[in-house]
Amino acid sequence: MSHESLSKPGTSSTNSESVQVVVRCRSLSDSEIAKGCKELRLFIWTYSIIIIIFFFLHDKEVVQVKEETGEVYLRLCGVNKDKTTTERKFTFDYAFGPKCTQEQVYHATGRSIVDSVLEGYNGTIFAYGQTGTGKTFTMEGNGNHYTSNTLRGIIPRSLEPVFNTIALQRDRQYLVRIAFIEIYNDNILDLLNPNRTNLELKEHPDTGVYIKGLTMQDVSTIEDIYKYLEKGKQNRHTAETRMNRDSSRSHSIFTLYMETCSQLNASNPNEGDAHIRAGKLHLVDLAGSERQSKTQATGLQFTEAVNINLSLSALGNLIFALTQKRKAKHIPYRDSKLTRILQDSLGGNSKTVMIANIGPADYNLDETLSTLRFASRAKKIRNKPQINEDPKDALLKQYQQQIALLSFIFSLKDQLKEIATTKTDIHIPFRADSREVPTETTARNKELVKEKLEEVEKQNEFEKQFQILFVCVKQLQRKMQKETEQLEAAARAELQKKQETEAQIQMKTKVLEEKKQMQEQLKMKLEELEKKIIDSNKVVTEEAAREEITLSQRKEELNKKKLQQEKYERIVRQQKSENMKLKEKYESQEAELNDKTNKLKKLLHMYNNLTEEIEDTQAQFQHKREDLLETVRVLDKQIKLKDAIIKCFIPAAEVQKLRERIVWNDTKEKWIIQPLNFDQFRKFCKVNSTYYYFLKNIVNI
């Protein structure tokens, strides 16, 4: 995420767009089945026999998903004052049940984002939910399934269209780079280079937030990405808890950077500047929220859970601030490192998709309700995606210009060599000026003398013109030599800026072996740079890529037609209901009374639902408050332990000195001890001396 790779936004979309939200419900796990979390009827046994029979006949569970309408129904049992069962309805862009496939989820979420990134937009896909609900499975897949199979997640599926598109775009060049990080205990770690820990977040006025010192790997094939993806996955922190055998203990962010432009001409490296575009794709796997009462985490796992919950709380506060009707004066992007990295993804320059993962068990009813409400709020976020165009900062342009420069130097090297080594002076015979005229003149030879004088004058005039021409030739020679020196200096200065080609071109005479060696070095450097720019003919065959894109386009068209049909059905249902209301004609006062009584009951039911939702929100707030209080108690114990150690082993005077010197650094987010300043301890000399200070380098402490 180096700031050199990011580009300023150029072409902007006219309208903002909402964050797309998708809900995915997994099936019951083996542990949940063993606990008896099958159906809701087991939970409501003591409340109502009628309700028991109802659910027994219909065999309904806590969560119901209607994929055709994108609706999720959540059955709340015994949470209100009357201890009755109520139902909550949530509507999203897509909703998937336990029987959905990875391919269906990808086509609904990832494909459109990947196509936008290829056009130069920023894109983000992130999975959110309780621990153990299948976020990592949704993003990565099951195990090491990166090849063609049905268990691949969104990350490997999003990479294939990138290289298929590159294979067909022969008139364009691409530069693809990747980065892989995790946020563990609020520290940024580089998964591609485990030695780089606790990386710092920086902010550039033009490019925004970036991570200093992050490893950026150049890739040219999808196999390279799979290799780095597996390497980063092995370095990620995981642990086993009571709710998840392979629980992620950190937030991971896999980022793909792509720059594209038309191919540059070697004779004109600046051609095609307006066609450079830079896209960025964030693929985020958030750690799941946890409750200590359920996970029974202690020690290091408890500390990890505290940091996970704090960062997710900061994310929730950010979404709440972005979705307020009145625009908030302060948007809390700086409350955590996660929210700072996702600053463009939420309310900024990005196309964003959120996947909310939930479970069907009644045991996790509170967490499921919290996740659905979180997803409902996220739908209200408005982003303003823009195409990133800025050829000044594009790294691909620098590589292309360097390749064009090396090719140009190869073609002109011999000519520059001849011009630089040519120092032949022009020797022109010069005839001395002789203006002697015979002094003896007679009448007989006046005509002869006159002819000789005319001949001498003509010769002198010719010699003057020849001298002028000789001076012009000298000036042209000096000018050519000066221009040659300037050209040589400019070429040397340009090559010195490029460390790869420093000291490879010399304009003086060299032996043939050195000349061949220098040319081989330049060719090797040129090949290395050309390897970084992906050649479309070497990625995949054109036929296979074209078939893949055609198949995906057909699937996209089918999905769009399906969505349009669903929208039309919704509109028709709404129009039918409105027409029924308009055509209502009461035959008698009794019928009118019954109809209005039914409407009143519906309104009363809606009122009761809203009241129950308020109570649920208050109960959820109370649960969060208890969790935060428990976290505060643990942190208070740690503070008291540190205070006891300081009190027993560190003198009070030294503690006071440290308190005076220590300051909080907002950028690094840690306490820093300032260096000592000894100026205040210097004293004037008491003896007679011409110096203001005597022995001023000695201090009294």
Automatic annotation (TrEMBL):
<dbReference type="GO" id="GO:0005874">
    <property type="term" value="C:microtubule"/>
</dbReference>
<dbReference type="InterPro" id="IPR001752">
    <property type="entry name" value="Kinesin_motor_dom"/>
</dbReference>
<keyword id="KW-0175">Coiled coil</keyword>
<dbReference type="GO" id="GO:0005524">
    <property type="term" value="F:ATP binding"/>
</dbReference>
<comment type="similarity">
    <text>Belongs to the TRAFAC class myosin-kinesin ATPase superfamily. Kinesin family.</text>
</comment>
<keyword id="KW-0067">ATP-binding</keyword>
<feature type="coiled-coil region">
    <location>
        <begin position="439"/>
        <end position="627"/>
    </location>
</feature>
<feature type="domain" description="Kinesin motor">
    <location>
        <begin position="18"/>
        <end position="381"/>
    </location>
</feature>
<keyword id="KW-0493">Microtubule</keyword>
<dbReference type="InterPro" id="IPR027417">
    <property type="entry name" value="P-loop_NTPase"/>
</dbReference>
<dbReference type="InterPro" id="IPR019821">
    <property type="entry name" value="Kinesin_motor_CS"/>
</dbReference>
<dbReference type="GO" id="GO:0003777">
    <property type="term" value="F:microtubule motor activity"/>
</dbReference>
<dbReference type="InterPro" id="IPR027640">
    <property type="entry name" value="Kinesin-like_fam"/>
</dbReference>
<dbReference type="GO" id="GO:0007018">
    <property type="term" value="P:microtubule-based movement"/>
</dbReference>
<keyword id="KW-0547">Nucleotide-binding</keyword>
<dbReference type="GO" id="GO:0008017">
    <property type="term" value="F:microtubule binding"/>
</dbReference>
<protein>
    <recommendedName>
        <fullName>Kinesin-like protein</fullName>
    </recommendedName>
</protein>
<dbReference type="Pfam" id="PF00225">
    <property type="entry name" value="Kinesin"/>
</dbReference>
<keyword id="KW-0505">Motor protein</keyword>
<dbReference type="InterPro" id="IPR036961">
    <property type="entry name" value="Kinesin_motor_dom_sf"/>
</dbReference>
<feature type="binding site">
    <location>
        <begin position="129"/>
        <end position="136"/>
    </location>
    <ligand>
        <name>ATP</name>
    </ligand>
</feature>
